[in-house]
Design a protein that fits this description.
Elements (H helix, E strand, L loop, with lengths): L1 H16 L6 H55 L7 H19 L6 H23 L13 H26 L4
Length: 176
């Protein structure tokens, strides 16, 4: 029995005398480790490309949403009725101002777009002042015929033009 133990210890000793560099399983495992690292690197690069593509798609979707919203505002402004009343016009102006600010908030710090956005906001401010000048003092006093329409008419066309310019500038950002 003691001979058997010595024999087993001799086998273990002879196996340990062979350098690990001379064993095939070391080189195979080393190869697969490097292959795993390389594949992980490729996966990382592909994930970065996918992230960039997702960000680009999100920007495109946002730009389309902004363009559609601004187009809707421009359409409403182009269809103002000549018989519009002060309260209806004030509501339309407030809604237009709110929607415009909401839609353009993400582009406010953009140097190119901020110039156009400022033109839109300036024109909205001019309409607000013109509308204030024709507001009824009380319910019994009748405003001159079409006074609300004529007060804002000279500003609505430039506003629609500025909105169109803004729509074009935003849409240009989505094109490659």
């Amino acid at each position: 029995m003691l001979n058997k133990i010595y024999e087993l210890l001799g086998d273990i000793k002879s196996q340990n005398e062979v350098s690990f560099l001379q064993k095939g399983d070391f080189w195979i495992s080393l190869f697969f480790n490097f292959l795993g690292l390389y594949l992980a690197y490729l996966a990382y690069k592909e994930a970065n490309r996918a992230k960039e593509a997702a960000e680009e798609a999100a920007n495109s979707v946002r730009a389309v949403g902004v363009s559609l919203g601004l187009s809707e505002i421009a359409y409403q402004l182009e269809r103002i009725d000549i018989n519009i009343q002060y309260t209806t016009c004030r509501t339309l102006l407030s809604e237009t101002h709110r929607k415009t600010r909401q839609l353009t908030a993400t582009y406010k710090n953009d140097p190119e777009l901020s110039i156009i956005i400022n033109k839109v906001e300036s024109t909205l401010g001019q309409i607000e002042v013109a509308l204030y000048d024709v507001r009824p003092i009380n319910e019994t006093v009748i405003s001159p015929l079409h006074s609300v329409y004529w007060a804002i008419e000279c500003f609505s066309s430039p506003l629609v033009g500025h909105l169109g310019e803004l729509i074009g500038a935003v849409a240009k950002r989505t094109q490659p």
